[in-house]
Amino acid sequence: MKYVIIAILSLLLWNCKDQNQAESQEEKPVKTKNIVSKEGAVHPVAPELFSQFINVRDFTINTEGNEAYFTLLSPARELSVIMRIQKENNAWSEPKITSFSGQYIDLEPYLSPDGLQLYFASNRPVSKDSTHTKDFDIWYVERSQKDSKWSEPKHIKAPVNSTYDEFYPAITLSKNLYFTAIKEGMNGQDDIFMSRWNGNSYEEPIALSEGVNTKGAEFNAYVAPDESYILFSGWRRPDGIGSGDLYMSKREQGKWQTAVNLGATINSEHTDYCPFVNTVTGTLYFTSRRSYVEKKDAGYTNYNELLTEINRYDNGSSRIYKVDITDLISQ
Q1: How far apart are CA 173 and CA 266, in angstroms?
Q2: Is residue 2 part of a domain?
Q3: Which of 21, 211, 234, 256 is deepest in the core (most CB within 10 A)?
Q4: 152-156 long-range CB contacts below 8 Å, 24 or more apart?
Q5: CATH of the domain at 117
Q6: Is 91 helix (H, G, I), strand (E, B) or coil?
Q7: Could you give the number of structural domains in the chain?
C-alpha cells in the first residue's frame, strides 16, 4: 500500500515554534504497564491495546470519541482487516472484526462526519458472482443510525473507481470525495484527487492543485468536513523531516494554499501518515513508524531491560498516535 494557509509571518512563527519545541523536548520515557514511549506533544493511542500488534494503521473515530476503526495487518501484509473498538467506562474494548471485512484485503477506513457511512479501500470482487480479486477500489458501508448494523459493502462506480488503484477515501459534508490514486501519465507517483458530488452522481476526478500535489508523491489525506483544510503525507519532500511527513494546506477563496510541514513536534525521522481529526476535540490521530529505541554506549547486560526497550511502543512498528492541533486548525 502507498505509504498514504497561512500568511508568511504565521508560517515562519509556526516553524520556529516547532523547532524550539523539538529542541527543548526531553526524551523522558512514558511508562504504562511496562510499555515505554517518548514523552512529548505526541502520545500513543491506547498503548495497552495497540502494543500487542506490530502493524496497525488508519485510525478513524466518531465525534463522540467512543467508536473507532483501524486496519490490522499481518507483518508481511498478506492479511489486512478492518477492526472496530468501542469505548466503555473510559476503556477501549477488545477489537472485533467488522461485519464487512476479513475475507479480502481491506484497509483505510474513514468515518463520514455524521458517522453514518464508513468508506474504505478494498481489492474485493466487484461482482458478487466472482471470486477474482480486483485492483484496489473505494467502497463504503452505511447505517440508518449510529447504533445500527452496517450494510453490505457498496462499490462506488466510475468515474471514481477505474482500472487503476484508488486508495484512502475522505468524505466531506458536501459528499465530495477525496482519495489517493496513480493515474496514467503520472510517472508512478501518488497524487490526491477530488471527485465532486453533483447531487446525483460523482463527477470526473481532478487532481488537487500544486498547493498540495507536486512531482513527488502525496497520499492519504484527511479533509475537514467543510473542506477548509487538508492534512496529508508528502514523500521525501525537500523540507521533510523523515521519509514521509504530515503536511497541511488551507483552502482560501477556493484555492489550496502551499502546504506547510507540521514540523518536528509532530513528524518524526521515519514515516508519518494516515491522518484523521476529531473536530470536536481538536485531536489529530495518525499512524507512525517512529522509533526511539535507545542504543546504549555500554550496551545492555540485563535481559528485562533489553526486552522492555525492544518492546517499547515507539520501536519502529506501525502504530497509532495522537496530538492536540486545536490551535492549528482554529487559525
Answers
A1: 27
A2: no
A3: 234
A4: 152/100, 153/100, 153/122, 153/124, 155/126, 156/202
A5: 2.115.10
A6: strand
A7: 1
Q: Is the pTM of this model over 0.70?
A: yes
Q: Give residue-wise pLDDT tens across range 57-68.
A: 999 999 999 999
**What are the pLDDT digits (tens) for 12-57?**
333 433 444 433 333 444 555 567 778 889 999 999 999 999 999 9
Max CA-CA distance within the chain? 66
Residues 63, 244, 324, 37, Cα dihedral to 10°:
110
Helix (H, G, I), strand (E, B) or coil at 309: helix
What is the secondary structure of 139-155 as a DSSP string?
A: EEEE-SSTTSPP---EE
In a domain, 191, yes or no: yes
Quote the CA–CA distance of 19 and 71 in Å, as a whole number: 32
Residue 159 lies in a domain: yes
Would 208 be classed as within a structural domain?
yes
- Residue 107: name the closest of 190, 191, 45, 169 by CA: 169
Contact 116, 143 (CB under 8 A): yes
Please tell me the predicted confidence (pLDDT) of residue 187: 60
